[in-house]
Amino acid sequence: MAYFAFRQPEKEWEQVPRFFPRTLSDKVKATFTRHSPWFNDFIFPASPPPADTLTLAQWSQPAELSILLARYATHCYRDEPERKQENKPLLSLWAQWYTGLLVPPLMLAQLTMPQPIDLSPERVSVRFHETGRAEKFWLDVQPTHNDAPQDAIARIEDLIETAITPVVSTLESTGHINGKLIWSNLGYIVNWFLNQMSQFHPLGELAELHQHCFLSPQLRSGRANPLFRTMLEREKQWVRRTCCQRNRLPGVQQCGDCTLK
Fold first, then answer.
1. Residue 152 and residue 202 in contact, taking contact as beta carbons nearer than 8 Å
2. What is the mean pLDDT of the chain?
3. Which residues pair with 160 in a beta bridge?
4. Per residue in 21-68, pLDDT tens?
5. Looking at the DSSP assignment, which residues form a beta bridge with residue 138?
6. What is the CA radius of gyration of the chain?
7. Does the chain have fewer CB atoms within 10 Å around its N or its C terminus?
8. Nearest by Cα to 183 from 165, 159, 162
């Protein structure tokens, strides 16, 4: 699930035709359309969120989250309702849907815009599928209002700390999954996206991002880097350390590159 990063010089946006909207949200949408047009099927940076969407503050409420996870469990165990439910793989796959749809577009937007965007949780609204998992996202695209560094590493770290950590913490608070497993899955998504970027982005910076994301034990803020060693470099390939455990769910096969093989 889960892309590309090429920081567009501001002057290139000056060449956009007069009739083309030039808000930051429209620039994000134009970047999606240009480089990853399939994003437009499930993430909307230039439209207001519909009434049936929820922010993290809303869906993370225990009662609401319990309903979503119960619906997802019913879906996953629909063919084997008598089978004992395993919450860890269930939450692992639920989180993969959420982060797999959200993280790559956020990375694309954050790494390509002429200025960093605000990734606060209240800027993200999600519509959940009838099965209980994330289906589509709406972004309230606004620039950040601080003097933080704007290089690629700083932008990725802001995504990790501001946009994703609150989601992982919410799921971990259920007591059914360790946050390390979710971060391991996220490392896989981030690595996949960085590899996709190689079609457009300088390889030197991609190597720097790989090294920082997966081999730096700390973020610049001094906090522990949750992606540290979630991916390991072996024979010039980045491979994940741990199994996501989704194969423990009914009808779900091992990933093609599962660590258990």
1. no
2. 85
3. none
4. 578 999 999 989 988 899 999 999 989 999 999 999 999 999 999 999
5. 44, 125
6. 19
7. C
8. 165
pLDDT for 118: 94
Per DSSP, the three-state class of 79 is: coil
Among candidates 110, 102, 105, 135, which has minimal Cα distance to 196? 105
Judge contact between 151 and 138, C-beta under 8 A.
no
Closest CA to 174 of 72, 84, 248: 72
CB under 8 A, 24+ apart: contacts of 124-127: 124/55, 124/56, 124/163, 125/49, 125/53, 125/54, 125/55, 126/53, 126/54, 126/55, 126/59, 126/98, 126/102, 127/50, 127/52, 127/53, 127/54
User: Does residue 198 or residue 13 have the better pLDDT?
Assistant: 198
CB 232 within 8 A of CB 238: yes
Separation of alpha carbons 116 and 144, rounded Å: 6
Spatial separation of the C-alpha atoms in residues 95 and 92, rounded to whole Å? 5
Could you read off the pLDDT of 197-249 as tens digits, one per residue?
788 777 888 889 999 999 999 999 999 999 999 988 887 787 777 765 666 56
**Phi, psi for 126 (deg, rounded to 5):** -125, 140
Amino acid at 193: F
Quick one: average pLDDT of 64-74? Answer: 96
Kind plus residue range of the DSSP H or E element containing 108:
helix 87-112
